[in-house]
Design a protein that fits this description.
The complex is a heterodimer of chains A (134) and B (297).
Chain A: E1 5-11, E2 14-21, E3 23-28, E4 31-36, E5 42-46, E6 49-55, E7 58-64, E8 67-71, E9 75-80, E10 83-85, H1 91-104, H2 110-133
Parallel strand pairs in A: 1-9
Antiparallel strand pairs in A: 1-2, 3-4, 3-6, 5-8, 6-7, 7-10, 8-9
Chain B: H1 4-41, H2 43-58, H3 68-71, E1 78-84, H4 94-111, E2 115-121, H5 123-133, H6 152-167, E3 173-181, E4 187-195, H7 203-208, E5 215-217, H8 220-296
Parallel strand pairs in B: 1-2, 1-3
Antiparallel strand pairs in B: 3-4
Helix pairs in contact in B: 1-8, 2-8, 4-5, 6-8
Classes of the chains: A alpha+beta (134), B alpha/beta (297).
């Protein structure tokens, strides 16, 4: 059994998950990455996407509309404004985030616009995928 | 001297008032528990947010490129007071004490020649401040009428609003007024400056040296720019939840007092009722006896 890392996923109104895991896959701002025990300390914002918490054959998947993660060698804290278990997610849940993302693109330039557009398209993809699955 | 019938009517009306206040007290107690749970559930997120932010912000406070939300605009002339109160009354001095706290600051700031504006969140505070300070109100006050449970969405609504105004450069300093929940008996009216952000340095983190070794993605300033607005939303959310708990606590205490007072009043009135009844019976007896005496004599 490989060394485990403590994972905490919290949203403003509750703690969604708090457990030990082998590895965690996160949608970081600079691209997806996987964190395992002993990972270099990193603080990153999250793009909309899926967080996979892997423990052997047990995989928990959460969808987030953005947020922030702090990884240290022994601990990962994920702050997500809006998150939900993959199985419980519906397209409607992310619709308001999508609308907000669309609005936030107004009046931006270059880098910021690129960033906002990426956020928007990620979210859009998520909503559409969920819509098809439902 | 009120008649027996009048007394009876009064006793009954006080009794039904007592029933109402008792019921309100119990409802407040139940709601208080839920509000407290909500406030507690929000703590881990807020605590983590503060830790992370202070880690990044401590080194960046004097950085000229740091976001304005952290540094401020450099001026201190235009203040926005966000006064958060309840939607409903009958909760003791809860709303008044927040308003009093805000009024004290309005007077102080105006005295210093600052430009003061008021944004009320909640109907009661707006009604109380309207009397003296309607000319300072900003357009479009916020109220959460009919909102049963404060959610992150409500906080976001307030945050979006003030962040938008700040981005437009309408204010230099934004302060939040709400009531900190200490216990059922004590709620402390509090003023919290949210812009520029007040972030306490976390000493233990510095001691561990954990902030030195972090890698940031994207870079520190971009991260700060993203986290600071979120932090404001979280602060507002926390303030609203604290307020909700305080409101129910204050109502519980107020209604407990009201119930006790009503009970005392019922006792007093019942005593008076019984005395008058006795007096009436006695005087009737005297009349009968003296009537009989007169016939016999």
């Amino acid at each position: 059994m490989a060394a485990t890392i403590k994972v905490e996923l919290v949203s403003p109104d509750r703690i969604l998950a708090s457990l030990e895991a082998e590895k965690v896959m996160l949608p970081g701002a600079g691209g997806d990455f996987t964190a395992m025990a002993g990972h270099v300390p990193i603080a990153t914002s999250l793009s909309p996407g899926a967080i996979r918490i892997v423990n052997g054959s047990d995989v928990q998947e959460y969808l987030v509309a953005g947020g922030f993660a702090e990884v240290s060698g022994t601990e990962i804290s994920i702050l997500a404004e809006f998150a939900s278990l993959r199985e419980e997610a519906t397209p409607e849940m992310f619709q308001s985030s999508l609308d907000a993302a669309e609005k936030s693109m107004d009046g931006l330039e270059k880098d910021e616009l690129a960033e906002a557009t990426r956020r928007f398209s990620n979210l859009k993809m998520m909503v559409e995928t969920l819509g098809r699955a439902a | 001297m009120p008649s027996l019938k009048d007394l009876k009517v009064r006793i009954n009306s006080v009794k039904s008032t007592r029933k109402i206040t008792k019921a309100m007290q119990m409802v407040a107690a139940a709601k208080l528990r839920r509000a407290q749970e909500a406030a507690e559930a929000s703590r881990p997120y807020a605590a983590r947010m503060t830790t992370v932010l202070s880690n990044i912000a401590t080194g960046n406070r004097d950085n000229p490129e740091a976001p304005r939300l952290l540094r401020g605009t450099g001026a201190d002339a235009r203040h926005l007071l966000v006064v958060c109160t309840a939607e409903r009354g009958l909760c003791g001095g809860f709303n008044s004490s927040i308003v009093r706290r805000a009024k004290a600051d309005i007077v102080r700031l105006s005295g210093e020649g600052k430009d003061v504006k008021i944004l009320c969140v909640g109907r009661k505070g707006r009604e109380q401040l309207k009397r003296d300070y309607e000319h300072l109100f900003v357009e479009g006050q916020i109220a959460f009428e009919g909102v049963k449970k404060i959610s992150y969405g409500e906080a976001d609504q307030v945050a979006t609003r003030i962040l938008g105004d700040f981005a437009k450069g309408e204010y230099d300093v934004i302060t939040l007024y709400y009531s900190e929940f200490e216990s059922v008996l004590t709620q402390k009216p509090t003023a919290l400056q949210v812009i520029p952000a007040t972030i306490d340095a976390v000493d233990e983190a510095v001691e561990k040296g954990s902030n030195a070794s972090y890698e940031y993605e994207p870079d520190e300033n971009a991260l700060l720019a993203e986290l600071l607005p979120k932090n404001i939303t979280v602060q507002i959310y926390r303030a609203l939840l604290e307020n909700a708990a305080s409101e129910q606590g204050a109502r519980m205490t107020a209604m407990d007092n009201a119930t006790r007072n009503a009970g005392e009043m019922v006792d007093k009135l019942t005593l008076q009722y019984n005395r008058s009844r006795q007096a009436a019976i006695t005087s009737e007896l005297i009349e009968i006896i003296s009537g009989a005496e007169a016939l016999n004599g």
